[in-house]
Amino acid sequence: MKTKYFVVFILLFASPLVHADTNDVEVMRLKAQQFIAAKDWSSAESEAKAITDADPKNLDGWLMYGIVEQRLEKNDSAAVAYKHYLALNPPEDKAAAVRQRLAEVEVREQKSDEKKLTKSQEHYGLKSNGVFFAFAPIYQPSTSTVLNGNVNSNYQFGLQLQQMNIGIMYDGGSVSQMRVPTGGSSYKIGGPANLSTWTMYLEYNYILTAPFTTMGPFSIYIPAHLGFFENSLRLSDGSNSFSNIGAEVATGIGTQWYSRTPIVIGLSALYHQGVGFENLTSGSNTTEGVENTSGTIAHGGNVGPEIRLTFTYLFEHTKTLAEKAGIQ
């Protein structure tokens, strides 16, 4: 029944009011009406579009094109066609009916956009998994600080499993001079040396505000970090090397920007508190550790601040039946 009234609306409104005075446009108009009567919407769409291309001021063409696009649920192009029709100053009674149709398609278009946004938020949100790369332009581990080294940044990569990150962190730099043990309690000045640290960690992000709620596309969270590291200090001349292993915890505050796409950008500030299970020692001397030139032992605990910029690529998350039902 609705389709019957729909066809009648087209045939009544799309009468030859104003159109290009050419046989070609008139033939196209008649063909479009025939396709509409036969409910061949795809062919009607092509013919109506051809009319508007051939005669941009043709009222019938824009009206038929708008109605057919609305029938095909192409609300954005239907709205454009109706606006073109109204811009040509049609009779007021018909203009009023088209304004009503324009309002309907704009509401539908808005709802469609909102539905797409909601779907994107669900697919690329807190329940998505992904991979990440991070760079910390500010990082000052105490191992480097005590030895007057120049480590001031780090690189990280890993997997994101919803709110849990499993990552590997690397930082490296150099130490110009230090006191190295030579056996017993004897030391000598050594250097330069290359200092590097590898850390494997787990980091859970406790969400304070979820994205697309009170903070718009931003999420605020508290990171809880647990890591295990290995420091390595190698003299540049290759004469000796020193290392230790240890554990660290860190926490702070962070924010992430969700773009409703796979890309998420985060910024966080943490403070690390670590402890070396032993001092920086070599295989030939396990009792004495490396010291700075003032005689302070480098315990290798990697205590210090970090400011980190993170880029995450999310994999699309599909809601489970329980999530759709609101159980999870």
What report would you give on this structure?
The radius of gyration is 34 Å and the shape is rod-shaped. Helix 2 (23-37) packs antiparallel against helix 3 (41-54) and helix 4 packs antiparallel against helix 5 (75-87). It has 328 residues and is of the alpha+beta class. Strand 6 and strand 7 (218-235) form a beta hairpin. It folds into two domains: 2-122, Serine Threonine Protein Phosphatase 5, Tetratricopeptide repeat; 129-317, Beta Barrel (Porin). The strands form two sheets. It has an eight-stranded antiparallel beta barrel with strand order 1-2-3-6-7-8-9-10. The protein has a two-stranded antiparallel ribbon with strand order 4-5. It has helices at 2-13, 23-37, 41-54, 59-71, 75-87, 92-123, 142-146, 321-324; strands spanning 129-139, 154-161, 164-175, 178-183, 186-190, 193-209, 218-235, 241-258, 263-276, 304-314. It contains eight helices and ten strands.
Which regions contain 5 or more consecutive residues with pLDDT less than 50? 15-20, 321-328
How many domains, as an integer? 2
Hey, roughly how much beta strand do the residues contain?
35-45%
Based on CA inertia axes, which overall geometry fits?
rod-shaped
Order of helices and strands: HHHHHHEHEEEEEEEEEH
| Mean model confidence by pLDDT | 84
Total DSSP E strands: 10
Could you describe the largest sheet, including whether it forms a barrel? 8 strands, antiparallel, barrel
CATH-defined topology of the largest domain: Porin
Spatial strand arrangement across the major sheet: 1-2-3-6-7-8-9-10
Corresponding CATH architecture of the largest domain: Beta Barrel
Helix-strand makeup class: alpha+beta
Number of helices: 8
* CATH level 1 class label of the largest domain: Mainly Beta
- What's the helical proportion of residues? 25-40%
> Termini distance?
42 Å
Radius of gyration: 34 Å
